[in-house]
Inverse folding.
């Protein structure tokens, strides 16, 4: 097999060499291009971040160097001031100054003994109230100490030391200050001890310090005079002794509330901010430092140049690596392409990495695409391709075997189709007979449906009559019920009337008895009136017998007699009226008795009418109940008729469907017969196709 593969490689190579090769897109070139782009992006990101970080570190370095230089300068100034003040305070207590009187020898001896050999101060002075001035080192001219600022300052405040303003000595080119303190001796003499402090030591302390690459550290007095400066650049910004009290830098430092910090300034070319330090309360000078904005230009330029060189080297290495990768990828993909082309020609062969060659790229390609598990995706893809080739080979053999079997089965199907065609003809005849029977059944179903419709019409008419009867019965029952209610109310009212009549009869009887009693009372009154009349007559007789004394009594008796007569007349009238009332009462009592008898008869008639009405109501209720049962029976009959009609309709529809179905089946049988003929043709074609498939499968080797 390998020999055949090499032969095909050689023949394909000859064909391709004879043609003009077309340039094609390669995945290896794409991978190499991607590697170069990724490397360039990585380089740009790496050096950009490095540049930014380095710039930040350099700025931080410059900031720290400014702060350090200013702090060192102020620390040196503070140390010098502290040493000088301590020396003055100690000197004002020396016995050579405080015991006895001030003498030249004692003062000079004390000064030489106590103040010689010190580099903090350059000279020592002692001035007296008499105007004498003694110095440790000789003076160039004679000076009255009382005219000096250091003497007057110490005398004005004897409790503390006094500092003069920094002054510039043109002969030495240095700034100095004089610190002094008052001295008193046992003889009550007063003097002033003073030390001349030079600031050259401060400049010496900041000499080794650098503020960035081009920065400057400057010491100024509180009055704005430059006492010392150091610049890392060849061109100094300030000169010693220069007055900068009118500059923006001095004004802002003086106005600053803090003892140290950063200030935005103007007036210095290329500088936007400074760092200042004012020191402590006893500091005689201030320090400030700054770095120009172009301080980092040289360093950043070198960094950029170095980064560019490194980038070029890395790009070259990446390009070489990309070319190597491109070649290796082309070899790997070429192996896959060759395998696919062989498969296209019908040669089902596995991938073989031995044909890749012996170059370094070929060895890398072999490692990348060697068919193995548990490695890269390409290794697994090669293994999967080989397994696919094995499966396709097995499938091809199976197809060959299946093609032979298909040809045999096609022959069997041809015989089966012929038998099926004969059976279809028999089924067609049977279906024709079934269709005839179904047609007769359909006619019978239609006749039954017509009879059910006639029955439904009669039932509907009966239902209408029952509805009319039900309505009339309901109305009659309602009227009977109203009549019964009316008769009951009449009976109740009549009974009430009879009771009232009975009570009237009783009252009439009571009235008759009362009239009889009144008659008896009137008889008694008449008897009393008669006797009263007799008594009055007797009284008149007795009064007449009495003469004049009985005249008054006679008048009374006469009046009593008149009253008796009037009473009798009234009782007679009352008796007549009562007699008339009694007669009318008797007649009314007779009429009431007659009315009572008539009422009893009327009551009997009303009771009879109520009983008749109740009987009619009960009969009407029975009639309504019977009508309801007839109506329910008619509804049931309608439901049965509806169900029977629906059943007949379904039977009719089913019969029609059966008829149509038999026709359809008959038609289908004919179609099946035709299809069987077509199936026979198709089986013949299938047999030919199976033979052709077997022939094609022989192409795969």
């Amino acid at each position: 097999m390998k020999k055949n593969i090499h032969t095909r490689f050689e023949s394909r190579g000859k064909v391709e060499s004879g043609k003009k090769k077309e340039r094609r897109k390669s995945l290896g070139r794409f991978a190499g291009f991607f590697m170069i782009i990724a490397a360039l992006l990585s380089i740009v990101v790496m050096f950009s971040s490095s540049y930014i970080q380095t710039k930040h570190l350099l700025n931080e370095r410059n900031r720290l160097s400014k702060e350090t230089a200013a702090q060192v300068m102020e620390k040196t100034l503070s140390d010098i001031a502290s040493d000088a003040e301590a020396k003055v305070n100690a000197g004002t207590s020396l016995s050579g100054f405080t015991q006895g009187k001030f003498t030249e020898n004692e003062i000079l001896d004390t000064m030489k003994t106590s103040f010689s050999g010190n580099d903090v101060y350059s000279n020592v002075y002692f001035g007296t109230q008499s105007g004498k001035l003694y110095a440790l080192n000789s003076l160039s001219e004679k000076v009255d100490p009382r005219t000096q600022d250091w003497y007057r300052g110490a005398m004005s405040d004897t409790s503390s030391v006094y500092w003069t303003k920094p002054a510039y000595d043109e002969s030495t080119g240095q700034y100095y200050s004089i610190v002094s303190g008052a001295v008193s001796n046992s003889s009550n003499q007063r003097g002033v001890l003073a030390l001349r402090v030079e600031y050259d030591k401060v400049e010496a302390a900041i000499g080794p310090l650098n503020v960035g690459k081009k920065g400057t550290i400057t010491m100024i007095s509180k009055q704005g005079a430059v006492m010392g400066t150091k610049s890392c650049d060849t061109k100094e910004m300030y000169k010693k002794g220069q007055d900068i009290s009118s500059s923006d830098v001095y004004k802002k430092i003086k106005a600053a509330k803090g003892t140290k910090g950063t200030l935005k300034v103007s007036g210095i070319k290329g500088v936007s901010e400074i760092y200042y330090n004012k020191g402590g309360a006893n500091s005689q000078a201030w320090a400030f430092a700054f770095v120009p904005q172009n301080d980092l230009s040289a360093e950043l330029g070198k960094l950029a140049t170095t980064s560019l060189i490194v980038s070029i080297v890395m790009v070259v290495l990446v390009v070489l690596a990309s070319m190597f990768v491109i070649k290796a990828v082309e070899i790997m993909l070429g192996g896959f392409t060759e395998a696919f082309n062989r498969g296209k020609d019908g040669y089902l062969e596995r991938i073989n990495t031995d044909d890749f060659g012996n170059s370094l790229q070929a060895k890398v390609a072999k490692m990348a695409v060697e068919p193995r598990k548990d490695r890269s995706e390409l290794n697994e893809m090669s293994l999967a391709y080989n397994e696919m080739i094995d499966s396709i080979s097995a499938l091809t053999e199976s197809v060959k075997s299946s093609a032979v079997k298909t040809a045999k089965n096609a022959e069997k199907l041809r015989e089966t189709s012929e038998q099926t065609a004969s059976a279809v003809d028999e089924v067609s005849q049977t279906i024709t007979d079934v269709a005839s029977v179904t047609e007769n059944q359909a006619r019978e179903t239609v006749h039954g449906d017509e009879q059910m419709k006639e029955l439904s019409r009669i039932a509907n008419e009966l239902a209408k009559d029952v509805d009319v009867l039900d309505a009339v019965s309901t109305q009659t029952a309602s009227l009977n019920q109203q009549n019964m209610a009316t008769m009951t109310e009449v009976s109740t009212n009549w009974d009430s009337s009879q009771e009232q009549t009975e009570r009237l009869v009783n009252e009439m009887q009571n009235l008759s008895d009362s009239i009889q009693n009144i008659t008896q009372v009137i008889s008694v009154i008449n008897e009393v009136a008669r006797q009263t009349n007799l008594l009055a007559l007797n009284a008149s007789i007795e009064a007449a017998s009495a003469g004049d004394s009985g005249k008054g009594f006679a008048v009374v008796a006469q009046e009593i007699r008149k009253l008796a007569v009037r009473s009798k007349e009234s009782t007679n009238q009352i008796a007549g009226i009562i007699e008339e009332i009694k007669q009318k009462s008797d007649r009314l009592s007779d009429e009431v008795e007659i009315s009572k008898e008539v009422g009893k008869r009327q009551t009997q008639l009303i009771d009879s009418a109520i009983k008749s009405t109740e009987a009619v109501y009960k009969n009407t209720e029975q009639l309504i109940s019977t009508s309801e049962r007839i109506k329910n029976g008619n509804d049931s009959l309608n439901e049965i008729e509806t169900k029977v009609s629906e059943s007949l309709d379904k039977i009719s529809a089913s019969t029609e469907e059966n008829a149509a179905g038999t026709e359809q089946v008959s038609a289908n049988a004919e179609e099946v017969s035709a299809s069987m003929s077509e199936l026979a043709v198709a089986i013949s074609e299938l047999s030919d196709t199976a033979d052709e498939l077997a022939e094609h499968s022989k192409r795969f080797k």
Observations:
- The CA atoms of residues 476 and 620 lie 7 Å apart.
- The mean pLDDT is 77.
